[in-house]
Amino acid sequence: MSMRKTILFLIIVCGGFSLSLKEEGEKYSVPSKSRKSLFYIQRNHNRNTIVYDANFDKSGQLNKEEPIHVYWIRYEERGQKMELRTIEKWYAYGVKASKIKNNNKEFKINLVASSKKEFLLKEENSFKAAIYTTINGKQAKLEHLYIFADNTGFWPKVKYIELFGEDITSGESVYEKLMTDQ
Question: Within a domain: residue 32?
Answer without folding.
Answer: no
